[in-house]
Write a structure and sequence with these properties.
Shape: rod-shaped
Radius of gyration: 53 Å
Strand content: 15-25%
Structural class: alpha+beta
Distance between the termini: 142 Å
Strand order of the largest sheet: 7-6-5-4-8
Length: 438
């Protein structure tokens, strides 16, 4: 068995030698030699001359390139001369670099800064713009006609829209609708005019930037914008009407007008008072005129020995009989400050401000009550004054006589500043946001 395996192994070795022997004896094929590189093409004088001519031809077609000289040598283009604009220098270099046969550009062109050349360029550009303007003059006239037509149409439509039935409810609504219709019509006409001039892209840019401009303007003019918004809100809420008497913080006067920026009052002493709308909107506004009925009060001191009940009956009877004092609501009274020697009685009454002046009625009521007290022996607090005579005796000073009543009573409404209020309203009639007096 072993001998058989050995014989087979020997035969296998011999076979492998036979197979490997011929392959080792065959020589390898030599690698192909690399192809020789072609020689670099070199530009000749004819190529340089052709490139120079091409550059000169292209530059000669452009304005402002008359002084540029071109020289091409060995593929390098050298530019020299003067131009007016920096963009012309850059353009000359780009044209030279784009030509076949040019491998590099030496741009030696400089800008001409002489005053005469710059002035001539400006005059040429001005003449060119003038020619363009004359050429587009028909379009400009047509666009201007469109804008004027839109302005007229907006005013006409605005007046008709503002003259509708809502004027009686709130005059500002009519003014707002009128301005809105007018400006929308004007805006439509402006867009049509820009479209006619081929400037719709500019119109879009302007409208697109309006929001940003409004935001910046809002921060820059915060107080002014606040007054405008407050004026609109006051005109819509209408807390007061023209001619009404107001107290706003420490300011008091009759309303003359409400403009977009301020509220105009006429003080009781005849002065014009202008308050910012933002201040009026944020302040406590006391309106004396909105309700016809208004209460007044006054107090009279009597001696502590006088019966309060008797003083009340006499005072209330005199107060009720005073011209201008309303029976409904009826007058009232109260006692206060009783210190044993003095009692202060306060009386209250109501007047109709549409018929009577509260100041006059109050004055007449004080007079009537004092007269009634004097007739019934109701005196004020006793205050004795002594006069020293030459004999050394002290006598009481005589009391002052009570002036006689002349019988004339005037409680009519005061119209002292009404003419001035109307003058202020006429002055601000175009800006007024609250309409006519009610």
């Amino acid at each position: 068995m072993t001998a058989r395996l050995r014989s087979r192994f020997g035969a296998f070795v011999v076979l492998c030698g036979l197979l490997a022997g011929p392959a080792a004896a065959v020589p390898s094929a030599p690698a192909p030699a690399p192809a020789p590189a072609p020689a670099a093409a070199t530009a000749g004088p004819s190529d340089d001359l052709a490139a120079q001519q091409r550059i000169e031809t292209r530059l000669g077609r452009l304005d402002g390139m008359d002084d540029v000289q071109v020289a091409v040598q060995a593929g390098v283009a050298r530019l020299e001369g003067k131009v007016v604009e920096a963009s012309d220098r850059t353009l000359a270099g780009e044209i030279a670099g784009q030509q076949p046969g040019v491998t590099a550009v030496d741009n030696g062109v400089v800008m001409d800064t002489s005053l005469s050349v710059r002035f001539q360029v400006a005059m040429d550009e001005l003449a060119e713009r003038a020619v363009q303007l004359l050429g587009s003059l028909p379009l400009l006239l047509a666009a201007l006609a469109v804008v004027l037509l839109a302005w007229w149409l907006g005013r006409t439509l605005g007046r008709r829209a503002g003259a509708r039935h809502w004027r009686s409810s709130n005059p500002y609504t009519a003014g707002l609708v009128q301005r809105l219709v007018q400006w929308l019509t004007m805006l439509a006409g402006l867009v049509m005019a820009l479209d006619l001039l081929g400037a719709t892209a500019m119109a879009g840019a302007v409208l697109g930037s309006a929001g940003v401009i409004g935001l910046v303007a809002g921060f820059a003019f915060k107080d002014i914008a606040e007054n405008y918004v407050a004026g609109i809100l006051l005109s819509l809420r209408r807390p007061f009407n023209p001619g009404e008497l107001l107290r706003i913080e420490q300011y008091e006067g009759k309303v003359a007008s409400l403009t977009a920026r301020s509220t105009i009052l006429v003080t009781l002493d005849g002065n014009r008072l202008s308050l910012p709308n933002a201040l009026v909107f944020k302040s406590v506004v006391l309106n004396y005129t909105r309700n016809p009925g208004r209460r007044f009060d006054f107090s009279i001191a009597i001696d502590g020995s006088i019966s309060i009940k008797a003083a009340r009956q006499v005072g209330m009877a005199a107060l009720s009989a005073t011209p201008g004092v309303l029976a409904d609501p009826p007058p009232s009274w109260t006692a206060e400050d009783d210190d044993g020697t003095t009692v202060r009685v306060r009386f209250f009454g109501w007047v109709d401000q549409r018929e009577n002046d509260i100041g006059k009625v109050r004055s007449e009521a004080i007079h009537q009550v004092r007269e009634a007290f004097s007739a019934h022996g109701i005196i004020g607090p006793r205050q004795l004054h002594y006069v020293a005579s030459l004999s050394g005796e002290e006598t009481a000073a005589p009391s002052r006589p009570t002036p006689a009543d002349d019988g004339e009573v005037d409680t009519s409404v005061v119209h002292d500043i009404d003419d001035q209020v109307q003058a202020e309203r006429r002055e601000h009639s175009k800006e007024d946001l609250i309409g006519p007096a009610q």
